[in-house]
Amino acid sequence: MKVVGLLLCALLVGAGNTPAQITAADNEQFKDVPQADRQNLISRLNAFIAYEQKGEYETSFNMIAQEFKEAVRGGLSLKQYKKESKIRSFKVTGITPMNSETVYSVPPIESKAKAFLVNGCGVFKNVGKKQGTLIEAYLENGNWMFSTMQFLGMETAAPCPEPSNHK
Fold this sequence. Notes:
- This protein is of the alpha+beta class.
- About 30% of the residues lie in helices and about 25% in strands.
- The protein has one domain: Nuclear Transport Factor 2, Chain: A, CATH 3.10.450.50.
- Strands 1, 2, 3, 4 and 5 form a five-stranded antiparallel beta sheet that branches.
- Strand 3 (about 130-140) and strand 4 form a beta hairpin.
């Protein structure tokens, strides 16, 4: 009986460490993404966040858009990328097409035919509080690629929704 209890405890603890997943419940947030590209974006974004959470930085670095890497002063290296603040959790709160006149990309990215600004609430490993967070998503050669996760440096003015299954 003790073995069963220990096994159950181990499973519950392990389940708490499962990376967050963007699900169909978040589909409304992705309504501006063309239907043909939506599931691929959600899948790639889930993978990118999971690699960040697990500390698999070489893999997540390979998902950073080349154009973004080159636009960073001096070029973004893997060594530099590993030093940046890493995400612990992320909850999408909205998506804006980057061809919108209201979006300004830093650094400026030229190929914005299919590019979106993904807004959300994130908790970074070195900050520990919910922060307004954004990530840029670009469709390059049929694959969704990203900018680095960027936090706004302060707690969000509007409260972030509770992350529910995105912890």
